[in-house]
Design brief:
Radius of gyration: 17 Å
Number of helices: 6
Shape: globular
Order of helices and strands: EEHHEEHEHEHEEHE
Distance between the termini: 23 Å
Structural class: alpha+beta
Number of strands: 9
Length: about 210
């Protein structure tokens, strides 16, 4: 049987690597998440999945989410949840998703980093890495992202990399209403920031599954 090509996809910088997590990696990611991603008093995610990591079936549901994402990859819609690896250790995830990408050429990114690895510049580096995959690898025309107004670390990464704010909306997180800030980066804004030290490998075999 031919190997599933996404397991061979790598996006590397001098300091980190993005790759599709194996099932063993999912167990490591789960334990990392259980150790904490954010202040328990604050919820940075629209779906408060980190509130349920100590429940008996939490590992199963965590893996199931990733398995469903793998199985649903198609030209019409995809969500690649990539593990972020630094010095051989998994430190978080970086996602890139899209709907009708072959036509629209717009991606949405999201991420999280374990608390023990925050404040070291990893968030900025992994976002720059996924933008390289989007624009240089997939030929996107635009990348979008969002973060709650009470998540200054994520907002700093977004603004540092050159995104432009593109509206706001009020959303529910847990039982509170929060302000979400939306950002976009056009290809012409990314081009001056294109890096030459990011290597993409294993992508060609994945393209047909994305409709490219």
């Amino acid at each position: 049987m031919q190997r599933w090509p996404f397991f061979d996809l790598r996006v590397r910088t001098p300091t980190l690597e993005l790759r599709m997590p194996t099932d063993d990696d999912l167990c490591e990611l789960f334990e990392l998440a259980r150790k904490g991603i954010h202040d328990p008093e604050v919820m940075p995610f629209l779906i408060p999945w980190t509130d349920h990591l100590d429940e008996p079936d939490a590992l199963h549901r965590f893996c199931q989410y990733h398995w469903q994402g793998r199985g649903a990859i198609a030209p019409e819609r995809f969500n690649l949840e990539l593990a972020v690896v630094v010095d051989g250790a998994i430190v978080g995830t970086q996602s890139i998703r899209a709907v009708d990408f072959a036509l629209v050429r717009v991606v949405i990114t999201g991420s999280w980093v374990g608390r023990a690895h925050q404040g070291k510049g990893i968030g900025s580096e992994m976002r720059a890495t996924i933008l390289q995959l989007a624009f240089a690898g997939l030929d996107a025309r635009c990348a979008t992202t969002e973060a709650f107004d009470d998540n200054p670390a994520s907002l700093r990464v977004t603004e540092k990399l050159g995104y432009v704010e593109n509206g706001q909306e009020w959303l529910r997180a847990r039982d509170a209403v929060v302000l979400s800030r939306n950002y976009r980066m056009e290809r012409e804004d990314w081009e001056p920031r294109r890096r030459t030290d990011i290597e993409i490998s294993g992508l060609e075999a994945c393209l047909p599954l994305l409709g490219l």
